[in-house]
Specification:
The chain is mainly α. The protein is built from 20 helices and 6 strands. 49% of the residues lie in helices and 3% in strands.
């Protein structure tokens, strides 16, 4: 890390070290201290404000792999043609461990014996699961049980835990945190997700448990059923008001020289960095348009010219997506012939949605379809789709009318024999601005069906990678554990190997 970046990191810690709520992030610094409140704020800021890996891991690779986006040079050249770039592939690993996990582990270690900080300790446990879940789902086996303990316990070469063991630890930790959270457990300061609302954190723990339960549905269905039932019994999200959202501020982004900052939306930074050159893929636009989905106009702007789909008549709105694997300037009629992304999705102040009620309902629809939880799969599905439409309102989208939503739901109900495909495809749409989760769910389910990549210069012959590969310098920094992990994953550091839960 460069010296200027280290100094800038200290500035951020100054800003968040004593924050009790989000508004204080706008005030002048009052202290420089790595206290639990500051560490919690910093981890939450990084999870959505780190434009470095939001650009690389979320937009370019995950968003390109699952055909959320297409057209920009980097998304097309690397995310659609499946070409390796070590900087892109390792971004989440490097920053997730360095910037997010270390502080959260410190909170857990430093509050473990303090009854007055029981709630802060529990929240940090949930955060640890959220941080490492993204890492293990993208990379496979990884440090977890010994990660972040370099300072407190002198462990500088942590072992790579097996992903199955990591998931078992996730479930245990989320249950422990859920039970631990209570009215007498002390205040949770520095919380940018729920401002210390313990009831919301309990629901988040259970909704994360549901996500993880369904993630292992193909490899370990009995355990998945057990965990899904437990999550529902404990209480998952009940409405969009429970969504895990981080509000973002209009501050310089994190690679501005001398001004490392995570208070803005890192995905917006990526859109802006691509000079507004990203478009939704034709796979996404076609699905929304052809099904009369109210989200089409909430997410995309109509094309302004060109020949793709015909030139728009005066007052006419035509929506055309960018073909995956095709640069925007090579589309028929050029980039003007392709729909854009709504401007309010590309602001530094655009909120970032981590976990949603829509996701929970759609996962429950699949669990009900499998017979794992009580209730109607069709009802869960309907609620999940409607919530997915409604959740776009947080970005500033004009709300869809109830009539439009009802018309859509009536025309597109859950159909017998197509349940898994429909549910997975709706999750793909719900995860639109969180492509890392969409990529994981696509690997688990095989849906939606992606358009074939036929570019002759694809490094994989058009086959979508099934993981991101580890940083190669791990061979020098943590060689024994690195090699042991590789031996369990095919022996080579390749992105065509599969993670444990991916058995499709």
């Amino acid at each position: 890390m460069k010296f200027k970046q280290i100094i800038a990191l200290l500035v951020i810690f100054t800003l968040v070290g004593c924050t009790e709520n989000f508004d204080e992030l706008e005030k002048d610094p009052v202290a420089l201290s790595a206290n639990p409140a500051g560490q919690l704020s910093f981890a939450q800021l990084c999870m959505s404000g780190d434009g470095y890996y939001q650009w690389r891991a979320n937009l370019i690779y995950s968003g390109g792999f699952v055909q959320h986006y297409a057209g920009a040079w980097n998304v097309t050249e690397f995310g659609s043609k499946f070409k390796k770039n070590d900087d892109y592939a390792t971004a989440l690993w490097r920053n997730g461990y360095a910037n997010e996990l270390k502080g959260v582990v410190d909170i857990i270690e430093n509050t473990s014996k303090d009854a007055s900080a029981s709630n802060m300790n529990a929240v940090a446990k949930i955060m640890r699961v959220m941080i490492v879940q993204r890492i293990t789902d993208l990379y496979g086996d990884c440090p977890y049980s010994e990660a972040g303990l370099g300072f407190s316990k002198g462990i500088v070469t942590p072992k790579y835990d097996k992903q199955q063991d990591i998931y078992n630890a996730f479930f245990a930790e989320l249950q422990e945190a859920f039970v631990q959270l209570n009215a007498g457990g002390g205040a949770v300061k520095g919380d940018l997700f729920y401002n210390g609302d313990i009831s919301k954190w309990k629901k988040l723990a259970n909704t994360m448990r549901l996500r993880l339960a369904m993630r292992i549905s193909e490899v370990s269905p009995a355990e998945a059923e057990k965990q899904a039932k437990a999550a529902l019994a404990n209480g998952v999200f009940e409405s969009n008001a429970d969504n895990c959202v981080r509000q973002c501020l209009d501050f310089p982004f994190n690679d501005t020289p001398g001004a490392l900052d995570f208070r803005g939306n890192g995905l917006s930074y990526a859109f802006i960095g691509n000079e507004n050159g990203d478009h939704f893929s034709s796979n996404m636009i076609d699905f929304l348009r052809n099904n009369g989905d109210p989200r089409l106009k909430m997410l995309a702007t109509p094309k302004t010219g060109g020949v793709a789909g015909g030139a728009p008549a005066p007052g006419e709105e035509l929506y055309v997506g960018n073909t995956p694997g095709v640069f925007q300037w090579d589309m028929p009629g050029g980039s003007n012939a392709v729909s854009g992304i709504q401007p309010y999705l590309k602001l530094k102040t655009t909120p970032f949605l981590h976990v949603s009620y829509s996701e929970a309902q759609l996962l429950l629809a699949e669990a009900a379809f499998r017979g794992w939880v009580p209730g109607s799969a069709a009802t869960f599905y309907k609620k999940g789709v409607e919530a997915g439409i409604r959740q776009l309102e947080i970005y500033g989208a004009t709300p869809a009318t109830q009539s439009a939503i009802d018309t859509y739901l009536t025309a597109k109900p859950l159909v017998a024999g197509k349940e898994k495909e429909q549910i997975a495809t709706q999750l793909w749409v719900t995860y639109l601005l969180n492509s890392i989760e969409a990529y994981s769910n696509w690997r688990r389910t095989g849906f939606p069906k992606l358009l074939p990549i036929t570019n002759p210069d694809s490094e994989t012959g058009g086959v979508v990678p099934t993981r991101l590969y580890y940083p190669n310098d791990e061979a020098q920094k943590n060689g024994v554990n690195f090699q042991e992990a590789l031996s369990r994953m095919g022996g080579k550091n390749e992105w065509t190997n599969k993670v444990w839960w991916d058995v499709n």
